[in-house]
Structures are given as structure tokens and as C-alpha cells.
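To: structure subgroup
Subject: Chain for Friday's discussion

All,

I'm putting the inputs and outputs inline so they're searchable in the archive.
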Amino acid sequence: MFRLALCSVLMAGPAWAGSFKLSGRTQARYTVQEAPGELSLPRVRLKLSGKNDYLKKASIQVDLGKGAVNLKDAYADLGIGALLVRVGQFKKPFTRQQLISSSRLALVDRAATDKAFKAGRDLGLMIHNGKKNKIEYALGVFNGHGDKGVFLPAKGKFSNLTGAARPVVVGRLGYNHGPADGYDEVDFKGGGLRLATAVSMQQYFTQSAAHEEERYMGVDVLAKIKGAAVLAEYFMGGATAGDSSTGLHVQAGYLIAKRYQPIVRYVQVDDSQAVTLGVSSFMKKHKLKTQLDVTQSLDDADEGATVRAQVQFSF
């Protein structure tokens, strides 16, 4: 509760000094792996974002889903010429699907490659040039413990500040051909061929025997043409002293009448494979939509499918 109160104070404080906007969204989900299934609220987000005379962008986002209160983002971009310097807690510039907001996904949730190759948020500092340039880049250094708190026996509390950073350097270089809107999995705009592609890398360094040095690399491409959208990502990496893991994620969808989109996804992580079939209905694009998907593992023919139905509403 203290974290929520602190965020409320921070959100209210600077609003008079510039242009800030409060937004939010809720995802209500029903998942069936075994009957009768389960209802959940995986994401209930509140976000304050904007800018003022000395900040190019600032954002604070909290999540109240899953029966807990968690800080997701708290960062600011400072402009130095054409260069932006971001400091705080935010997404590492690794994997396109992670950088795409969970509100803009074509299926109910991200592919299994997202967690397998350590995409996510962390505390750090990053230089970048945004997401709207023909050439985009980002390079940052982070604590290495992510945004999820772990229990610290010596302090008797949960925290993502362990007292000893596990430095990780993350870099990304991308190219955009045409107005691809490369951070939205649905092609609402339509039109000719547009491409967004990037390579990314993250290197975990170690300062103790408790952690191994790790390295991950990825390449991604999002192509859109006349309502069709195809996203592909390939990853490899792991502990530098051990065997590398590999991962592949490919999905394709087609928007019908600017409202309905059937989609298929294939995911492979090492020897594990799965296929997902889904359909989405966009009443107000991503602001109001319903989604249904079915995932079947290809590893075990006797393993049952997982069915997920979700409604998202935003303001």
C-alpha cells in the first residue's frame, strides 16, 4: 500500500507543471486448462504520462492485477540534443514483443519466448532515440534483478534492491521501412508493405558465485501489408559457460473489415513446441476488444489444450 500511496503522490505532484495524461486499462480473463477453469484479472493498470519544459517524457505505471500492487514503470527521458537519456524502472530494449504494450497484442498474451530469454523491466539508465525514426537505437545498463521483488531474509521484506547489482548491458538497433507502427501487432492502417526489424543483445555480468555470466541475442521483424501482419523473432543464449538455448516465435494474422482478426502462432523453445489459434474482435481498436485463443502443445499428444478468453477495456 505504501508503494501505491507514493505513486499517487508522484502522479498528482507534477500535473500542474506540464502536459500529463491519466490512463488505465483492465484485462479480465477466463482460462481453462482443466474444468471448470478460472477467472482472473491479470492486468489492471493505471498510468500517468506526459512531458513538461525539461522532460521529454515521463511515465509512472502501477498494476493492481493478480491481487497485488506492483510498480511497473517509473522513468523520465531527458533530452540532450537529438539524444534521449532515460533513467528509472522501465522495459529493457530486448525483444519486439516485450516492447509492444500488452494492450496491443494480437493474442491474449505474449509468446513463451518472452520469459525464456529474460525480456522484461529493470532499474537502469539508457540512451535512445525513441521508436519513430527510420533508424532506432538503444543502449542501457541495468541492475540485473528485474522489477519483481524477491524475499530478503536479512531485511524481512520483498524488494528488487538486493544490495548487490548483477550488471546487465542491453543494446538494440532497428530499421523501419515506411510507417509500420512497429509496436502494434495489428495492421489497423492498412496500405502497402511496411517493415520494422531489429537486432538486440543483453549481457549479464557476474559479481558472485551465485550468478553465472549470461548472454542472449535476438533478431525480430514485423511486416504489414493491407491488413495482414506477420511477426517473427529468433533467440539464442544462456550461460556463457554452458549450452545455449534457442527460441523461435512466428505469428500471422489478417484484419477483416477493420474489426475481426484470426491469427495463428507457432512457438519453439529448445525441444518444446506449441501452436496457438485465436481470433480477436476490435470494437474500439485496442481500447475495447475481446480475444479468444486455444494453445496446444506439440510435445505430448495426450496433453490437453489451454483455452483463454479475454476482454480488455481502456480509458
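Points worth raising on Friday:
DSSP finds three helices and 18 strands in the chain.
The helical segments are 2-12, 96-99, 113-116.

D.
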